């Protein structure tokens, strides 16, 4: 690193780079005449604590006095982190790129590594895992020779690599990286980032069906974040913990935690988080067989997700709203919502959401057009073979069992059933009527009179049946 004001030794910025945020904050508060670099350090501490308004105020002050390339590089990193926290990823990436090129120009290897790491989180979200991993390995190389100062950042890089490898389906590599990140951050920081790794790894364990281990990880993270008064991250941990409790049918505690995190999200004006909490509350109320309450939460979640513009929340809210529409026998609305959720999931690579939407699409078809259900079940099963999720597997098994009493499917121009799994009489009658009606309408070019002649029934009868089955 160049011999300049950035070489602070045990100063606030160096403490931040080592993960010692409490020490940095204490040191900054003792400064009577802070320099520009100290103000940037203050902004980084405020970002760590989740106080975005204070961070922004500090950075605006620096912007008025910055005339040094090294301060400009560090300022760009802090400004990028503020934009990242506000989910303005495009603008954040521009700042991180600027910081990287400035650091490279100065031959500041640590600054380059930090810029690459922060930028990698955005690249990973856009499903570019190979590019992300390449960036993170470059960051690793830049940390050679940095000594103890680089340990904290190495832990963060391991964490991001673990997430990437998980998204690529390389579970063994991801497992090793998660353990490495937890061990490193436990020694170097034991604060916010350590808790975030615990939450992320807890999510992995929950999806594997290891609910006891997941609960342990979430509880540890929750206690740590509560002690540090990091409310935004605490709300996220509470949401993840509540999912385990819902799976364990500990609904009363799950409800308390979700209402608590809903309050935290509202206090921090986090609309995305509020929408997520509403989605989970809707899911929980379905599990408790309280469809009216579930619908209230689902409607509110849908409204909030439209405001956020977040595709993941939008798809998730559509699934829960579809479940409530199905309960109210609004079949066509439910199918439309689930198909929209599938389209969003396919566009953005949300495999879990796609599986969930396919499962409930099959569930909806069971009471409406059962010949279509097995196709959705088959598609969900194929995806689940590549995406391990115990909760989704249980949901798929539940819906699949509905079809076991009478398996009927359409194959080209034929209606087929398995004689070893004879269908329910009324299910068979409905399936046959739907099949005959659709086939006749197709042959008659959707002409009701001609379709009636083919079936030997009146035009009015065709019209009534088409309305009954919403064909």
How would you explain this protein's 3D organization?
It is a single chain. The protein is mostly helical and 471 residues long. It contains 24 helices and two strands. Among the domains are: 308-404, Serine Threonine Protein Phosphatase 5, Tetratricopeptide repeat; 407-471, Arc Repressor Mutant, subunit A, CATH 1.10.10. The chain has a two-stranded antiparallel ribbon.
Concise overview:
By secondary structure, the chain is mostly helical.
Notable features of this structure?
471 residues; mainly alpha; Serine Threonine Protein Phosphatase 5, Tetratricopeptide repeat; Arc Repressor Mutant, subunit A; two-stranded antiparallel ribbon; elongated
Low-confidence stretches: 1-9
The geometry reads as elongated
CATH topology of the domain at 308-404: Serine Threonine Protein Phosphatase 5, Tetratricopeptide repeat
Tell me what portion of residues adopts beta-strand conformation. under 5%
- Tell me the helix content: over 70%
**Helix/strand/pairing category:** mainly alpha
CATH class of the domain at 308-404: Mainly Alpha
Q: Which oligomerization state do the chains in this entry correspond to?
A: single chain
- Distance separating the two termini: 70 Å
Output the strand order for the largest sheet: 1-2
What is the residue-mean pLDDT, rounded to a whole number? 88
Radius of gyration: 27 Å
- How would you spell out the order of helices and strands? HHHHHHHHHHHHHHHHHHHHHEEHHH
For the record, the CATH architecture of the domain at 308-404 stands as Alpha Horseshoe
Give a count of the beta strands, DSSP E runs of length 2 or more. 2
How many helical elements? 24
Largest sheet, strands/sense/barrel: 2 strands, antiparallel
């Amino acid at each position: 690193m160049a011999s300049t004001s950035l070489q602070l030794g045990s100063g606030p910025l160096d403490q931040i780079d080592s993960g010692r945020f409490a020490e940095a904050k204490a040191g900054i508060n003792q400064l009577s005449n802070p320099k520009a670099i100290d103000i940037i350090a203050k902004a980084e501490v405020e970002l760590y604590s989740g106080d975005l308004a204070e961070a922004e105020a500090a950075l605006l002050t620096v912007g008025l006095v910055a005339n040094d390339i090294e301060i400009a590089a560090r300022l760009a990193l802090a400004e990028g982190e503020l934009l990242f926290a506000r989910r303005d990823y495009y603008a954040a990436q521009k700042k991180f790129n600027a910081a990287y090129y400035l650091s490279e120009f100065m031959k500041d290897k640590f600054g380059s590594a930090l810029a690459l790491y922060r930028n990698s989180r955005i690249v990973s979200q856009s499903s570019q895992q190979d590019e992300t991993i390449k960036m993170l390995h470059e960051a690793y190389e830049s940390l050679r020779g940095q000594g103890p100062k680089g340990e904290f950042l190495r832990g963060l890089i391991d964490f991001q690599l673990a997430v990437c490898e998980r998204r690529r389906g390389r579970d063994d590599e991801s497992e090793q990286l998660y353990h490495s990140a937890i061990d490193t951050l436990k020694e170097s920081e034991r604060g916010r980032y350590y808790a975030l790794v615990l939450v992320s790894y807890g999510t992995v364990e929950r999806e594997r069906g290891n609910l006891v281990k997941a609960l342990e990880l979430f509880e540890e993270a929750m206690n740590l974040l509560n002690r540090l008064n990091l409310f935004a991250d605490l709300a996220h941990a509470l949401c993840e913990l509540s999912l385990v409790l819902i799976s364990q049918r500990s609904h009363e505690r799950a409800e308390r935690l979700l209402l608590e995190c809903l309050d935290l999200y509202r206090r921090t004006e986090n609309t995305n988080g509020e929408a997520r909490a509403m989605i989970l509350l809707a899911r929980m109320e379905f599990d408790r067989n309280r469809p009216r309450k579930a619908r209230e939460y689902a409607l509110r979640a849908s409204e909030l997700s439209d405001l956020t513009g977040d595709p993941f929340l939008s798809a998730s809210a559509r699934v829960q709203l579809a479940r409530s529409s199905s309960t109210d026998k609004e079949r066509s609305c439910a199918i439309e919502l689930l198909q929209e959720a599938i389209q969003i999931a396919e566009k953005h690579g949300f495999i879990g959401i796609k599986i969930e939407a396919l499962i409930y699409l099959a569930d909806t078809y069971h009471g409406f057009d059962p010949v279509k259900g097995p196709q959705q079940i088959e598609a969900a099963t194929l995806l689940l073979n590549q995406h391990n999720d115990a909760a989704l597997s249980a949901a798929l098994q539940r819906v699949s069992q509905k079809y076991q009493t009478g398996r009927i499917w359409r194959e080209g121009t034929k209606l087929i059933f398995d004689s070893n799994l004879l269908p329910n009489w009324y299910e068979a009658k409905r399936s046959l009527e739907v099949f005959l009606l659709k086939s006749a309408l197709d042959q008659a070019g959707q002409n009701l009179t001609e379709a009636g002649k083919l079936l030997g029934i009146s035009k009015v009868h065709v019209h009534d049946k088409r309305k009954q089955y919403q064909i």
